[in-house]
Amino acid sequence: MVPNECKGGIRLALAGAALGALVPGTALAAREWNLQTPVTPIARQMYDLHTFIFWICVVIFVAVFGVMFYSIFKHRKSVGHEAHQFHENTTVEIVWTVIPFLILLFMAFPATKTILAMKDTTAPDMTVKITGYQWKWNYDYLQEGFGFYSSLATPLAQIENRAPKGENYLLEVDNPMVVPVDTKVRVLITAGDVLHAWWVPAFGVKQDAIPGFVRDSWFKAEKTGIYRGQCAELCGKEHGFMPIVVEVKSKDDYAQWVAEQKKKVAVAADDPGKVWDIKDLVAAGEKVFAGNCAACHQANGKGVPGAFPALDGSKLVAGAKAEQIALVLNGKPGTAMTPWKQLSDTDIAAVITYTRNSWGNKSGDAVQPAEIKVARQ
Amino acid sequence: MSSIVHDHAPGYGHDDHAHHPSGITRWLTTTNHKDIGTMYLWFSFAMFLVGGTMAMIIRAELFQPGLQVVEPEFFNSMTTLHGLIMVFGAIMPAAVGFANWQVPLMIGAPDMAFARMNNWSFWLLPPAAILLVTSLFVPGGAAAAGWTLYPPLTIQAGMGMDLTIFAIHILGASSIMGSINIITTILNLRAPGMTLMKMPLFVWTWLITAYLLIAVMPVLAGAVTMLLTDRHFGTSFFNAAGGGDPVLFQHVFWFFGHPEVYIIILPAFGIISQIIPAFSRKPLFGYASMVYATAGIAILSFIVWAHHMFTTGLPTAGLLFFMYATMLIAVPTGVKVFNWLATMWRGSMTFETPMLFAIGFLFLFTLGGFTGLVCAITPVDIQIQDTYYIVAHFHYVMVAGSLFAFFGGAYFWIPKWSGTMYNEKLGRIHFWSSMISFNIGFFPMHFLGLAGMPRRIPDYAQQFADWNMIASIGAFWFGASQLLFLYVMVQCARGKGEKAPAKPWEGADTLEWTLPSPIPYHTFETPPTVK
Fold first, then answer.
1. Which of A112, B5, B200, B385 has minimal Cβ neighbours within 10 Å of its Cβ?
2. Does pLDDT of A110 surpass 60?
3. ipTM confidence
4. B333 is catalytic
5. Are residues A135 and A242 in the same domain?
6. Whether pTM exceeds 0.90
């Protein structure tokens, strides 16, 4: 932290020492003044680049305003200085055009190197998909097959000043993202509603989450620990209340965490051998329908004439179970009906049962998860 | 309208009882560039107070961690309206006010080229302001998506957003009319002998600004119109589900937005280029290179827009191009700063209030320029984009830049406009009070941004507490200081103070100082000859 302190000292001097004296006796932690300590190679390059540019600017600033203040003190009427009426010199104009240009080249070189490194998302060791929602994050571990939501854990009482604020006020979540140390993690970032931005300062990653588009970035944390960030793109009223917490674990701890997560998923997952009662299937299916199908087929099953077919009174729904199962599993090429294989056997069984026994449809038969399992093969 | 034949002898004696209606009709129907300039300036100051009040609400909420003063949604409306009102309601109309007053006087023209359109471009402003302010009271509240109005958040908003869109349309129309007027005036109404390269630099900067405005205001109008049709007429310009792209809006917006930054700062450069030579008692150093640098900045401003979008995930080539182009802007801007310094060098300086504001401008604008350079470096910008560092940066260039220059311009010309000297002592107190409080208010924001505080949040983590409290104290102090400016200017307008001579500033040499103070209602009916 030595460079921090040192640089901060200069900045503080610029701001006027009086600033610091205004708030005596509070913890230094509340007065951070520099970039957070980097824990990835990219964040370190950003940090060093900032320090480098900062000092160049300080040197130029001191030189230019040294000249100005010298002039202000020496070339004033009150000390009897007479104005010299010169007003043109092509040589100096060229000099003070060319020199700044050369300084800029000097700055652009390291910056270019960092950009190239920053954008190189190739050959990751693992990939996590991150989706921003109003107002929470979703982390999807694509290769491991599990995912979870992560939202603010700070109690409302603290925000409304009814309880003392905790140490990580507004920077704590219920389920942090977990990654292994020394591993190149590629993050695929998107959003479900409006723009968000996933930002962890210590990693040097800030990437807008754009609904309908997937952007990527990467980081390789070199130290275990808990790192905190926030949504960095205005996303509505709770924008200030959707923090990001990433826990970097040792590789062993990470493997153990993954195993636990998988176990949880397995417990929560359904047993495709179970035989359901039709009433339960319809009830479960209604929820699946609302979450996946109603956007096109509409909650009343009438669809949108000309765009999305009605399920209410549909011949297909009234027909053989196997055909409807095949359609749901494989979709209908060339239409908006995409394959729904990613849903569980139980969910598909439930939603098909629901459509066959709702609105005007009265087939009276239940589709069991086992049938879906067979149909998948 | 009756036709009145004047047979006065040449001279200005009769103008003391200028022929114009009195009371409100004078101001509603006036086609006089001085009256219209005055209205622009008062309007912009009124909007400055409205936008400033919103800033005070923002800083009050951010005084301490936790929610104390306002609800988050209202907070977002405050940041949004503060930005829109300050940019479109305060700074831009103030610049047009200066242009109205000064451009005809400085080029020896009797008035603006299109006097009636001039009246119309001013009177479009109050309805737009009313739309913006009343949007606070409609169902759903005012626009709360930031002054940049990024979709899809703007698509979700209530009808306050529609009022904002219409306000922007009206303000844009007003700006375009004003620009056409200024360009025509400058190109066609110059006095004999006033060649382009003899024009005062303020006229040059406004000529270039007016071209920028004509080029980009329609782009903004297009962007907000697309928002409007996405909101109400089923289009999908910015909706991925319909084949659009939310980022398209950002490209279009910033194609307007970056030149807009120079629209705001170039007239300020012009004012500073009048003040510094006057108080250094020396001609402006490097006049020609100042003109070329201004044009260079204007041209570069069209190819740097995506530096506002480094975190959207631009391709590598895009990041590199926009970083290099943005860094290049430092060159012509540096040339301007060096030329101002060379103008001061070996002069015979005095430090009345206009000069203090000009030096304050030079000092703080350059600081804002340096942080701009820091932001231009893409990898650094990744860390500070959308943080308080950016908030600090653009307030250094817009408040300590444009606003300080406009204060300087107001003190510089008010003796000529009103015929009354301002109170020098109060003027200096206003300067020092603004200078100190501004830095207390905004300098700590650099630290906040670096340490990781995002902008546009109503509440923040504990490690940001101290600097926020200091920033709020500075902001309240800065806000209160501006009431002093109001008092000083009202005193001048009421004629309370020393009577101003025709040329109160020893080193001033532009045409307006050849006229009596207070300035007659009609001037240069016979054009002066410029040698």
1. B5
2. yes
3. 0.90
4. yes
5. yes
6. no
